[in-house]
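Task: encode each sequence below as structure tokens.

Item 1
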Amino acid sequence: MRTSVSTSISLLVAASLASAQNVLFVGNSYTHGNISPTVTYNAGNITDANGTGYGGVPGIFKQLTDSVGLDFAVTIEAVGGKTLQYHLENKASIIGQANWDIVVFQEFSYAPVPESRMGDPSLFQNAAKDLISLVRSKNSAVKVYLYETWARADLVYPDGTPYHNASVKVFTTDLRTSYANVGAQNSVAGVVPVGDNFLKAINHGVADRNPYDGIDAGKVNIWAPDSHHPSVYGSYLSAATFFQHITGKPAKSLAVGPGTAAAGLGISCADATRLLKLV
């Protein structure tokens, strides 16, 4: 009888492990968050493949999925300031594993935009293609998502910057177009429109448009104090966007308040609710 019970427990544990979706997030500081409390948020419940102790957007995503009873085993492989070409050249042994069910790739912030705006779209296209081929060579069933990032305020508003005579909208459009092209070329599962949701937050009056002239009353700063990394609001919106696109469940159904990711990041119920409605 004891053997039977023990065997049953072992089978249940094995089944539980087998049911978990293994998700790998590959990127840089736009993935790990760069500022507290985002950078280490929920780090104890995800795996940092580089041993740096990051939580970031993947840590928030993990908490959101756990909160609705979904089983995702989340790993982050993020190195600040690096391109996807860097990850291809230096992290292939981590990325090229057969156990990943889902892989998310995030390119350097302005690499996807036109060369006339300081970008290097060919570098992005080639590295993404090679990385996607790598993960598919190990697991043909892997789902690949591209992390469409956002317009940088520090490259829009100060004099002499690449988008100074354009706008956040034009910057976002360039990013969207580039990510969509790479997604179509490689038949990915989806392009996760985080950058579009940043712009939506601005257009809907949830986030301030220009942090260089102060933050309007009743609005949040979607950017961190450096005006290009995500603030806690930006990281939360990013993770919520991934939650909806990867799980298929509406982000607006997520709970806010005590014990939630929003509360852990210091985001009020009202602001969290407004952000979730944008996804």
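Item 2
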Amino acid sequence: MATVNLADARRIIEAAEARAAEIGQPMNIAVVDMGGNLVAHVRMDGAWMGSVDISVNKAWTSRAFDIPTKDLGANSQPGQQFYGIHASNHGRVMIFAGGIPLRRGGEVVGAVGVSGGTGEQDQAVAEAAAGAL
């Protein structure tokens, strides 16, 4: 079964770093494999220390549910079908933008999580990262 490997993760992180530099926002970038296990993480110079854990958990969440965290967030607001999901899995579930499943040939093989800016910035960097696979 295919999964994200270290070479993939390095390419994904490189693309994320380039996009983060382009927008002028240092980021934490995490890549997990198909089992949700951390393959690689980078904390760019000046990125928030508090976003390390968030980036890893965004990647994990995106892989755990095979959905972008941005979409999960939209569906987890009061009155929505996944309301309260952020309290599951010992609080590990992230419900804001910046986590994207990584697909190869239509199959989810891992995920990327980005944290350190606004939701829009995190999402833009995560999209650039996912595009590198």
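Check on item 2: The longest helix spans residues 6-23. The radius of gyration is 13 Å.
End of task.
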